[in-house]
Write a structure and sequence with these properties.
By secondary structure, the protein is an all-alpha fold. Helix content is 60%, strand content 0%. The chain has helices at residues 17-29, 33-47, 52-62, 71-79. α1 (17-29) packs parallel to α3. The longest helix is centred in the middle third of the chain and has 15 residues, at 33-47. The relative contact order is 0.19. Mean pLDDT is 84; it is low at 7-14.
């Protein structure tokens, strides 16, 4: 199953948890959102996880980004 996410997923009037994770990664790394999302998509394919938000957390942690306050939000998003 190919589940890829693009910049259309990001946005809207209310910032979602994926937006916040990507924003933090861009701030920490200096990469733009498109580059960060490409990394998340690559890792998503490697890990074969369905929840892109979980993969985004993994990428953030690998880059030394503090996302501890977002874990509960991701859990709510993923588990409902």
């Amino acid at each position: 199953m190919d589940i890829s996410f693009d910049l259309e997923y990001i946005g809207g009037s209310e910032e979602n948890v994926l937006d916040r994770i990507i924003s933090r990664i861009t701030e920490k790394t200096g990469k733009n959102a498109k580059e960060v999302l490409a990394e998340i998509n690559k890792k998503h394919e490697e890990l074969n996880l369905l929840a892109v938000e979980v993969v985004a957390l993994i990428v953030a942690r690998e880059k030394g980004v503090d996302i501890s306050d977002l874990i509960d939000d991701v859990e709510k998003k993923v588990l409902g």
